[in-house]
Design brief:
With 586 residues, the protein is of the alpha+beta class. Among the domains are: 64 residues, no CATH class; 273 residues, no CATH class. Helices cover 59% and strands 11% of the residues. The strands form four sheets. Strands 1, 2, 9, 10 and 11 form a five-stranded antiparallel sheet that branches. A four-stranded antiparallel sheet has the order 5-6-3-8. Strands 4-7 form a two-stranded antiparallel ribbon. Strand 5 and strand 6 form a beta hairpin.
Length: 586
């Protein structure tokens, strides 16, 4: 359920602002809404971003700490040093890449002794380099000519003469290298030494990672406090703050101010029609398992919308079972999660996330057991139970279950929507749409399954007739039929096709599950053609990839059926904002 909220208007002396905000932070109850535009100092945001970047960098390191000492200094200075080192390393690596390119080009010249050549030129000797055919060396006008390299059918010559050098058009003058191989190699070694020193410095800073993480938390708390402080409205001696508090915890807030002996005026009121309170979900512990998915998808129901957490989790478990459709996969994940449950909790894993995995793949294991599907193969574990999901009868049963599940899911959406409305005669219009859904379900079974599934075909036309009357007369009920009937016709034209397509959309559960089974079977066939030693990696890789595809299918198809088809019929927009009380980040 969604926690009822109360709107707070708080006024206190400006001189007590810091103390009042500290009480609010310690109470961890009030979702503060800024009264005016909040401006965070750019230096604070920059410090937070730099510290976050450095923490990510240091967490990726796996240094050998033997013989190293932790770098002294404040966390702020360590962050600055780490950024300098982090910037220097790629610069030196880029420089090494350029030097190695230069070294490769220079190595073809051999050891020229560039300093000696410069000395000779300073003493009146002309020295030049020419590239051309080896058999035409006589066309170079020089007192001394020597071949120093060959490449691509031509030769490189060095010429020396006391007179000006020249050559025929068959030769091209070539610029000599700027440096010798030894000089370039020495510079590469210097760059590599700098990189080694920078990496050593980062490793020493990494030994202070815990301090830097605490510093990062401190910066986040400072920014949060600044956001709240800058968001209040001040008028000389008085400041005003607005926010939201859970209805059943307002007394805790007043008690906190009383204990702090602060003169504070607090006005508590119910949300007005134009207000948008934050949403705080209060569910049973099992239903909270869906929260990690909500956070991942950024999904928050509006304050005035229904909370479907329990239903969302239940249906997603069923959808996941159909989509993965393999008892072997389900059992592997469930056993792995159970074995790693306590170690993962000790390492800070989200308990709700682990429970979500157990729900989804526990349902998958049960479904695979019922359909006799194990690692892409049909294994009948019980001699008296011969259900075959790949046979004609098995396929029709699973398809029928998908359609039946779809119409039941959408029917539940209409019932939940009707319960939220004020009781009046227009509820008959909602009843009409429920009957219309079931009539469409019968048509779908007739077209696709060619046989009835739960609903006999002879019920289809009566359902259509009754639903048409209810929709036409009670969508917008009026004593004047000329007003109500056109509104009903418009509703039918707008929504009838959606009812058909939304129910058919649930067939994706069977189709994706079937595709996954075929992929698993293909890997099994490939492995069977290989020797045992080679078959094991194929089994592991093939089924591992298929399990990953199953998880993607859950996010792509299972979540979609809840967020689109079901939510559209419920008129659930997921446009809320999450309840985020002002508190210290730990």
């Amino acid at each position: 359920m969604i926690h009822p909220m109360k709107k707070l208007l708080l006024a206190a002396r400006t001189s007590d602002r810091q103390a009042v905000l500290e009480v609010l932070r310690e109470a961890e109850l009030v979702h503060v809404d800024p009264v005016q535009t909040v401006v965070i100092p750019a230096t604070l945001n920059e410090s937070i971003e730099n510290t976050r970047k450095v923490i990510g960098l240091l967490q990726q390191l796996n240094p050998d700490l033997k013989g190293k000492l932790a770098t002294p200094g404040t966390p702020a200075r360590l962050v600055e040093e780490a950024l300098v080192h982090e910037k220097a390393i790629p610069e030196q690596r880029d420089k090494i890449a350029a030097l190695r390119q230069e070294l490769e080009e220079t190595a073809a010249w051999g050891n020229l002794g560039l300093k000696d050549l410069v000395w000779l030129e300073e003493n009146g000797l002309n020295i030049g380099f020419f590239r051309g055919p080896a058999d035409a060396v006589a066309e170079i006008n020089a007192e001394y000519t020597v071949e120093i390299a060959q490449a691509a059918g031509s030769s490189l010559f060095m010429a020396a003469s006391r007179q000006p050098l020249s050559a025929s058009d068959r030769f091209a003058a070539v610029e000599r290298p700027a440096r010798d191989v030894e000089e370039i190699t020495a510079e590469i070694n210097i760059c590599q030494k700098i990189i080694s020193e920078q990496e050593h410095s980062l490793a020493c800073i990494a030994m202070r990672l815990t301090d830097i993480e605490h510093y990062y938390t401190k910066l986040q708390n400072r920014r949060r406090f600044t956001e709240v402080e800058n968001g209040v409205h001040g008028e000389e001696e008085i400041f005003v703050l607005t926010g939201w508090c859970p209805e059943d915890r307002v007394s805790e807030l007043t008690t906190a101010f009383a204990e702090a002996e602060l003169p504070v005026a607090v006005d508590v009121s119910s949300p007005a029609e134009e207000d948008i309170p934050p949403t705080s979900l209060k569910n049973a512990s099992w239903a909270n398992s869906i929260q990690p998915l909500y956070d991942f998808m950024g999904m928050v129901p509006s304050y005035n919308e229904p909370d479907t957490s329990g239903l969302f989790l239940s249906m997603l478990t069923v959808f996941a079972a159909f989509l993965v459709a393999d008892a072997g996969y389900g059992l592997i994940v469930v056993l792995a999660l159970l074995a790693a449950y306590k170690p993962l909790l000790k390492r800070g894993a989200d308990r709700n996330f682990l429970h979500l995995g157990l729900f989804l793949f526990g349902g998958t294991a049960l479904y695979g057991l019922l359909t006799n599907t194990w690692f892409g193969e049909t294994w009948h574990l019980f001699s008296g139970y011969k259900f075959d999901p790949n046979g004609d009868a098995g396929m029709k049963t699973l398809q029928g279950l998908c359609f039946l599940m779809g119409v039941c899911h959408l029917t539940l959406a209409h019932i939940m929507k009707a319960r939220r409305r004020r009781p009046d005669i227009s509820l008959l219009g909602d009843a009409g749409w429920i009957l219309f859904l079931w009539a469409m379900y019968g048509v779908i079974c007739m077209l696709i399954l060619k046989e009835p599934f739960v609903l006999p075909f002879e019920f289809i036309m009566p359902l259509f007739k009754i639903s048409a009357v209810l929709i036409l007369l009670f969508t917008e009920p009026s004593l004047n039929p000329l007003k109500s009937i056109p509104a009903g016709i418009g509703a039918v034209l707008q929504n009838a096709s959606n009812c058909f397509s939304d129910i058919v959309s649930y067939i994706r559960l069977w189709a994706v599950g079937l595709a996954g089974g075929k992929v698993a079977g293909a890997f099994n066939n490939i492995a069977e053609m290989l020797p045992f030693i080679l078959a094991i990696p194929v089994y592991i890789a093939g089924h591992g990839i298929n399990m990953i595809l199953g998880v993607i299918a859950i996010l792509a198809h299972g979540v979609r059926l809840n967020l689109l088809e079901f939510s559209n019929h419920l008129e659930l927009e997921w446009s809320g904002r999450k309840y985020d009380p002002f508190k210290e980040i730990k």
